[in-house]
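Async update (no meeting this week)

Hi team, since we skipped the sync, here's where things stand on the single-chain job. The sequence we agreed to prioritize is pasted below, unchanged from the tracker. I ran it this morning and attached the output directly underneath so nobody has to dig for it. Comments welcome in thread, and please keep replies under the output.
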Amino acid sequence: MAPEAVTKSERLMKKTVLVVDDDASVRESLGKVLRQENYETVLAADGQEAVEGFEKAKIDLLLLDLGLPIKNGWDTFERITGENPFVPIIIITGQAHKYPVAVAAGAGALMEKPLDVPRLLQTMQELLAEPPEARLRRLCGYTQDVRHVPGVSQSAGT
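Output:
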Protein backbone atom coordinates (compact mmCIF):
# COMPACT_ATOMS: atom_id res chain seq x y z
CA MET A 1 0.00 0.00 0.00
CA ALA A 2 2.81 2.44 0.74
CA PRO A 3 4.07 2.61 -2.88
CA GLU A 4 0.54 3.44 -4.02
CA ALA A 5 0.34 6.31 -1.50
CA VAL A 6 3.69 7.66 -2.73
CA THR A 7 2.47 7.54 -6.33
CA LYS A 8 -0.72 9.39 -5.39
CA SER A 9 1.30 11.94 -3.41
CA GLU A 10 3.62 12.51 -6.34
CA ARG A 11 0.64 13.10 -8.63
CA LEU A 12 -0.70 15.68 -6.22
CA MET A 13 2.54 17.65 -6.01
CA LYS A 14 1.96 21.29 -6.76
CA LYS A 15 3.73 22.95 -9.65
CA THR A 16 5.65 26.11 -8.82
CA VAL A 17 5.18 29.18 -10.99
CA LEU A 18 7.48 32.19 -10.93
CA VAL A 19 5.41 35.32 -11.64
CA VAL A 20 7.51 38.29 -12.72
CA ASP A 21 5.81 41.65 -13.22
CA ASP A 22 6.78 45.14 -12.07
CA ASP A 23 3.11 46.04 -11.55
CA ALA A 24 2.30 44.94 -7.98
CA SER A 25 -1.44 44.63 -8.66
CA VAL A 26 -0.84 42.31 -11.65
CA ARG A 27 1.75 40.28 -9.75
CA GLU A 28 -0.42 39.88 -6.65
CA SER A 29 -3.64 39.12 -8.54
CA LEU A 30 -1.90 36.49 -10.69
CA GLY A 31 -0.39 34.98 -7.55
CA LYS A 32 -3.81 34.81 -5.90
CA VAL A 33 -5.45 33.20 -8.94
CA LEU A 34 -2.64 30.65 -9.28
CA ARG A 35 -2.77 29.71 -5.59
CA GLN A 36 -6.54 29.18 -5.93
CA GLU A 37 -5.75 26.83 -8.84
CA ASN A 38 -3.38 24.84 -6.58
CA TYR A 39 -0.08 26.24 -7.85
CA GLU A 40 2.76 27.30 -5.59
CA THR A 41 3.93 30.79 -6.49
CA VAL A 42 7.13 32.78 -6.28
CA LEU A 43 6.67 36.49 -7.01
CA ALA A 44 9.28 38.88 -8.39
CA ALA A 45 9.06 42.62 -9.19
CA ASP A 46 12.08 42.87 -11.50
CA GLY A 47 14.46 40.80 -13.58
CA GLN A 48 17.08 40.50 -10.87
CA GLU A 49 14.53 39.19 -8.35
CA ALA A 50 13.34 36.74 -11.03
CA VAL A 51 16.82 35.31 -11.56
CA GLU A 52 17.34 35.02 -7.79
CA GLY A 53 13.92 33.40 -7.30
CA PHE A 54 14.60 30.97 -10.13
CA GLU A 55 17.94 29.97 -8.60
CA LYS A 56 16.44 29.43 -5.11
CA ALA A 57 13.33 27.42 -5.97
CA LYS A 58 12.46 24.57 -8.32
CA ILE A 59 10.41 26.51 -10.85
CA ASP A 60 8.13 24.54 -13.17
CA LEU A 61 6.86 27.47 -15.26
CA LEU A 62 7.69 31.16 -15.65
CA LEU A 63 5.24 34.01 -16.32
CA LEU A 64 7.47 36.85 -17.47
CA ASP A 65 6.62 40.48 -18.15
CA LEU A 66 8.92 42.27 -20.59
CA GLY A 67 8.96 45.81 -19.22
CA LEU A 68 10.93 45.17 -16.06
CA PRO A 69 13.29 47.42 -14.12
CA ILE A 70 16.92 46.49 -13.32
CA LYS A 71 17.09 43.55 -15.76
CA ASN A 72 14.54 43.68 -18.60
CA GLY A 73 12.35 40.76 -19.58
CA TRP A 74 14.41 39.60 -22.56
CA ASP A 75 17.66 39.65 -20.55
CA THR A 76 15.89 37.70 -17.82
CA PHE A 77 14.53 35.23 -20.41
CA GLU A 78 18.04 34.69 -21.79
CA ARG A 79 19.58 34.19 -18.35
CA ILE A 80 16.94 31.72 -17.17
CA THR A 81 16.85 29.69 -20.39
CA GLY A 82 20.64 29.57 -20.24
CA GLU A 83 20.37 27.94 -16.82
CA ASN A 84 17.40 25.70 -17.65
CA PRO A 85 16.31 25.53 -21.30
CA PHE A 86 13.51 23.12 -20.40
CA VAL A 87 11.45 25.49 -18.25
CA PRO A 88 8.32 26.66 -20.08
CA ILE A 89 8.04 30.45 -20.32
CA ILE A 90 4.95 32.49 -21.02
CA ILE A 91 5.68 36.09 -21.94
CA ILE A 92 3.01 38.43 -20.54
CA THR A 93 3.16 41.93 -21.91
CA GLY A 94 1.26 45.09 -22.61
CA GLN A 95 3.71 45.90 -25.41
CA ALA A 96 2.41 45.53 -28.96
CA HIS A 97 4.01 43.54 -31.78
CA LYS A 98 6.21 41.26 -29.65
CA TYR A 99 5.04 37.97 -31.19
CA PRO A 100 7.83 37.75 -33.82
CA VAL A 101 10.46 38.31 -31.13
CA ALA A 102 8.81 35.71 -28.86
CA VAL A 103 8.92 33.19 -31.73
CA ALA A 104 12.58 33.96 -32.42
CA ALA A 105 13.42 33.64 -28.71
CA GLY A 106 11.62 30.31 -28.35
CA ALA A 107 9.01 31.32 -25.77
CA GLY A 108 6.24 28.85 -25.09
CA ALA A 109 3.54 31.50 -25.38
CA LEU A 110 2.98 35.22 -25.70
CA MET A 111 -0.05 36.57 -23.88
CA GLU A 112 -0.96 40.21 -24.22
CA LYS A 113 -2.43 42.25 -21.39
CA PRO A 114 -5.10 42.51 -20.23
CA LEU A 115 -4.83 38.77 -19.66
CA ASP A 116 -7.56 36.27 -20.43
CA VAL A 117 -7.19 34.25 -17.20
CA PRO A 118 -9.01 31.07 -18.34
CA ARG A 119 -6.82 30.96 -21.48
CA LEU A 120 -3.73 31.65 -19.38
CA LEU A 121 -4.55 28.68 -17.13
CA GLN A 122 -5.23 26.48 -20.17
CA THR A 123 -1.95 27.55 -21.81
CA MET A 124 -0.08 26.85 -18.58
CA GLN A 125 -1.52 23.32 -18.41
CA GLU A 126 -0.58 22.68 -22.05
CA LEU A 127 2.98 23.88 -21.57
CA LEU A 128 3.44 21.94 -18.33
CA ALA A 129 2.28 18.77 -20.13
CA GLU A 130 4.54 19.38 -23.13
CA PRO A 131 7.57 17.07 -23.43
CA PRO A 132 10.88 18.78 -22.58
CA GLU A 133 12.22 17.88 -26.03
CA ALA A 134 9.47 19.97 -27.67
CA ARG A 135 10.44 22.97 -25.54
CA LEU A 136 14.08 22.55 -26.46
CA ARG A 137 13.25 22.31 -30.19
CA ARG A 138 11.27 25.57 -29.94
CA LEU A 139 14.05 27.28 -27.98
CA CYS A 140 16.60 26.22 -30.60
CA GLY A 141 14.41 27.53 -33.41
CA TYR A 142 13.53 24.16 -34.94
CA THR A 143 9.81 24.79 -34.42
CA GLN A 144 7.83 28.00 -34.23
CA ASP A 145 4.77 26.77 -32.35
CA VAL A 146 4.54 29.69 -29.93
CA ARG A 147 1.01 30.15 -28.64
CA HIS A 148 -0.30 33.71 -29.05
CA VAL A 149 -3.20 35.08 -27.03
CA PRO A 150 -4.20 38.70 -27.71
CA GLY A 151 -5.32 40.83 -24.79
CA VAL A 152 -8.93 40.46 -23.63
CA SER A 153 -10.03 43.85 -24.97
CA GLN A 154 -8.37 43.16 -28.35
CA SER A 155 -10.04 39.78 -28.87
CA ALA A 156 -13.43 40.94 -27.54
CA GLY A 157 -13.85 43.51 -30.30
CA THR A 158 -13.13 41.15 -33.18
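Quick observations from my side:
DSSP finds eight helices and six strands in the chain.
The first strand starts at residue 16 and ends at 20.
Reply here if anything looks off.
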